[in-house]
């Protein structure tokens, strides 16, 4: 009898202690001061003891959503967020309790890429002191993903949400900050910015490795990315550690500034980049806006590798829901890290404000080549985003070339004719192709009336061997 009582007591003690060994938890992306996407179904997820009851209570509606951890100790719930506002709190109750305070509801954007996206005010930007001094914006919040790599998708990552202050802004992505500041001022809602960038990384490291492995051309191009001392280069490495743990945190869209490292194999980027966009959207489960910067002019080692990469980026505009910021007028051919990050951020903001938030009065793109028509010995070029006309900055248009059926390009003259351009060269009687700003370092002077620069382009699809 005494033995039975002893066993029962031990069992009761063990049952009472079992919750102490459990620890309902959340990934780092969920912490106090975070921002959740407004007016959306937002997934919140975490871990706990298998079969542990979990409830999530949100203060904006005082509703509680209940679930139970699965056999792998994982749980997730979906909550509906209101229109922008706050601060609110979120309480997660398992065998223990977690309370998240100062939670805001607003617009959340993920920014990613390599060094030009990662570049901070501390690293050196134009008017850095003024920008840092004015960075007190408590309703703009930053989440800076720590540099990590992995060989398989991870469940968590390093980082925390912090309000924008001079102390936090100085080490955050400058482009993302300027973008967020413009959105905050225009929309008057909280802005959340998640920065997952790593200088020197090729696009291959930011997408699941099977994307490149399943395409022989992409797999071969990945082999051409030389190892570097300052960044990973193997497919999937940062995707696994710095992106996968964020999925499916609800975002309004993505900003991307990357491509300089992929100039080693620029022609394959035309397939790789759309594949990355589509894969990210597939994994998040919806087609969010994906806006990106075209790389700036720079003295790359091989002729044409930079402009071929820029052309691949231009062609990616065929992917629905994308937009491109052209930087040819605010780059630095001697510095792969142009210091004018404020204009890049503002152009990104105007792109998002126009295409995502309906501010149709804000111009968001310079002229983009649409089609050509031959008129005897001349070629007439037609452009999108030239509704109010084309302009040149200077005495004459520069960086045009024209070719006949011999495929030999020669310098050409171009003139503005309202919304079109007329291009010709004395020695080319039957032109068949035009190229514009077709070099690594071209800084052309063609703009639309809104003051935004035209992208480089070519009308031909002739093979171009890299030297």
From TrEMBL:
It comes from Pontibacter akesuensis. PANTHER family: SIALATE O-ACETYLESTERASE (PTHR22901). Gene3D superfamilies: SGNH hydrolase. Keywords: Hydrolase, Signal. Residues 1-22 form the signal peptide. It comes from the Bacteria. This is Sialate O-acetylesterase. GO terms for molecular function: sialate O-acetylesterase activity. Residues 107-352 form the Sialate O-acetylesterase domain. GO terms for biological process: carbohydrate metabolic process.
